[in-house]
ABC transporter
Amino acid sequence: MFRTALRNVLAHKARLLMTVLAVVLGVAFVSGTLVFTDTLSKALSSQSAKGYEGVAVSVTSYGPTRGENGQKEGEAGLSQQTLDKVKALGGVDSVSGRVSGFAGVGDEKGELIGSGWSNKGSNYAPVKDGKDPRYAFTEGTGPVKADQIALDKATAGTGRYKVGDKVRVATNGPVKEYTLSGVFTTEDGAVSAGGSLVLFDTAVAQELYLKPGFYQELSVAAKAGTSPDQLLGEIKPLLDAEHTKAQTGAALAAEQAKDVERGMSNMNQMLLAFAGIALFVGIFLIYNTFTMLVTQRTKELALLRAVGANRGQVMRSVLTEALVVGVFSAVVGLAAGTGLAVAMRSAIEAFGAKLPAGDLVIAPATVVAAVVIGVLVTTLAALLPAWRTGRIAPVAAMGSAHLPATAKSLAVRNVLGSLTSLSGIGLVLLGVNQGGDTGRLILAAGAFFMLVGLIVVLPLLSKPVIGVVRPALQKLFGIPGKLAAQNAVRNPRRTAVTAASLAIGLTLVTTLSVLGITLGQAIDRMSTDKLKADYKVSMAAEGMSLDKSVVDALAKAPGIKAVSPQADGYFKVGESYRSASGVNPAAIGQMLNIETLGGSLDSLAKGEVAVAESTAKKQNLSVGSTLQVQYDDGEKGALKVGAVYKDLEGLLSPYVLDNKILGAHTEDQYIREVYVNTAGGASKAAQQRVVDALGKNPAMKVATQQDVRNEMGGMINTMLNIMYGLLGMALIISVLGVVNTLAMSVFERTREIGMLRAIGLDRGRVKNMIRLEAVVISLFGAVLGVAIGVFLAWAVGTTIAKGIPNYALVLPWERIGIFLLLAGVVGVLAAMWPARSAARLNMLTAIKTE
């Protein structure tokens, strides 16, 4: 029986090729993801370890924290006195104090070098030999004067800077010019991520990022004979345990390696989720393939039963075929996955990101996963067809074909499928009603059961749904159209399994599209319909604060009519701290479309506070109420409520007041953005005036309203394109399923096609019949997928609508139309080979076929 199984695999190479390809694609995605993330994790961990070579102990400051009364406690960082105490210990060889923050370098055109979020500045900290152990200089030396800097080699090369050149560098304030003293190489993660690293003199870096005389980190090297643990024990008593953390360099490197692993696991899980979807869709193709193979070999298998093979042997022969296919697919998939991992790395680097060098890692777990997944998926998908094989009676050898499932055999399936689908829909609606995280979990469970039920009940749906389009097909295409519609529902199970794979893929694509576009438009309305300012100035690095000097520089610039910061601060109301926005009372009404429900924004100029509607209701506040507050510096005060405004989540905090008041009580105030109106309104010339007023600062963005809209839309579209790309594999497998179904359908109907040819159906109309059958099956799955996708998008959107102002479901009819059109194209393309095969059949030979 084993030899028979192998012979059957080799005898049906063409038929099994697409099944193999489906498994290969799924395994390749899984193994490629594992190889890529393992390789990157090891490279990043090795890089992290290199960065701490020679560091026996690392001391990190948490900075000031808030006490029970809300006041800040603790020093700004590690003081010079603490560094000197550590340095005086007997086992210490040297101590380097470190500070770091954002620093952007402009190129020849004044544009920022690097990606913004990974542009970093730090201090050059030479030890007793006059060198900083973290950096190896290829040209020049480290900065030793206030007007000097050093650059990493990649940044210097991109900007075409040489030692002695003037370099424009910006942090969060005015851009400054420095002399390049040297160029270095480093293992710093910012540079590896495609960013830049600027080294300042220590006193300059402290002034920029922390406070004179303070450090964020101390790197301690031990003398020969002193162990890191011994030195750690001596250092800890010298520190403020509540506001600092000390650990060995090895422990820190291990901690960062775990952080890298945790960070990679998120991407790993996302990619594996899409690989799981591809494999799930592949199961339908494998199941369909083995079902059709078993059906076509009914007579052969019955003869085996007749000559003495028992049910178990016949069943095991089919499972052996599946096992051979699975092992072969797993091996090929692992090889393809390794190539995919290399391609993923190249693709990421092509977009400007730099990944640390490292050997390709193919872990034993990856090999095991590839083999297990390939074999398990194939075997499970073939299990039901194999079980049916064992039930073939020897008497079937006298017939020419195995009869399709009867209506009675489908009745149980239809009842179970209907109940499961209705249960799933009920859970989805329950999740919508529940809302929140719990509701979304219930909704996810409901979506799963709904899809499973749909897959089970699809044979029941196929006849009435396809029956609706049969008259149109017959009218438009004549006999080929009528035959195509009849053939599509001749075997409901086969049609259902083929359509199910397309339905699942398009359900996911439609859900993501509707949600993405709806969210994009909601964010667009929130960010631009409420934004009246001509320009919004912010840091190129997301989340960075602008310096207070930016507001002054813009206010003094010619051609600028009004300026208002959007500054964040906190004060204590009752027992908890609340966020507040500091603005320019004279200008904020011109910058944002603020709808007042009571009072006037003019009251801000009188030192009063404006309160958001939702907060006013919770705190029982109204115009004229007095708000007792404790500011960030501990000082207490009373604020009169001068206005109540409609919530502007994402643009304004629940409390708004004059920034002169808020800023006076806030040290190192966070200014997220500055709104600007220019004389004569927005124009290219006006935008250039704002850029000039900022000193052509490469670290700052001057965005128009359209820029803000494009940025938001671009993020959503980028996310959707990534999702489309990942789901593309599932759709490719779906296409293979259609091809496989049609090819085997043509094989089964060889005699029938010969008869049709004999009574006058020419080759062209035979091709049309096969093509139309493919299109009908594809559109059947696509329509169901789109309908379910819209329903699920509505459900998910309803659970998140409360947290997103202006949320309203948007149906992207153009994209939905494109999805349906692509489904039709998929049908036409999938039918090319089977249609050609059918048209080329010799009618006499076909008629004689059993």
Summary: The chain has a mean pLDDT of 80. Residues 249-296 form the longest helix (48 residues). The two ends are 25 Å apart (CA to CA).
